[in-house]
Write a structure and sequence with these properties.
This protein is mainly α and about 140 residues long. Helix content is about 60%, strand content about 5%. β1 and β2 form a beta hairpin. The C terminus is likely disordered.
């Protein structure tokens, strides 16, 4: 279920966290579903137990999972709409930051929209897990 990329600039624990959040929000994991133990997940993914521990701690902090001592970690029964709203706030924050950077780079509104559209099209089918490369930016704006 979880696919890690050592080539990604995103830390391994964040890759785990993001993929589990996506599975929860999409309904692939339902409230009450048990997650693999920290040790089992680390063994399956061939990573450090500390890495999986960090991912689970972040998921618990963000109310996506609950950990019951001696029983394991489970998808939290919290309101999924609330969790989605929290993610939308983060998206808004990042988009506002991107807009500020684009303004500093003297990008036009149309250039920014074209770039976002191109990234969205590239992301289709891979659930937006790939990070954009400088090549993408060059490709879209050098072809004016």
């Amino acid at each position: 279920m979880i696919q890690l990329s050592n080539a990604s600039t995103q830390p391994i624990y964040e890759q785990i966290t993001d993929q589990l959040k996506q599975a929860i929000l999409s309904g692939a994991l339902l409230p009450g579903d048990a997650l693999p133990s920290i040790r089992m997940l680390a063994k399956e993914l061939k990573i450090s137990v500390m890495t999986t521990k960090r991912a689970y701690a972040d998921l618990e902090r963000d109310d996506f999972i609950e950990t019951v001592p001696a029983k394991g970690s489970f998808v939290a029964a919290h309101n999924q709409d609330f969790l989605r709203e929290e993610l939308l706030k983060k998206i808004e924050t990042h988009l506002l930051e991107a807009m500020a950077i684009a303004k500093t780079a003297n990008m036009s509104r149309q250039e920014l929209q074209d770039y976002l559209t191109m990234l969205l099209e590239k992301g289709e089918g891979n659930t937006f897990t790939q990070k954009p490369t400088p090549f993408l930016y060059t490709r879209i704006f050098d072809n004016k």
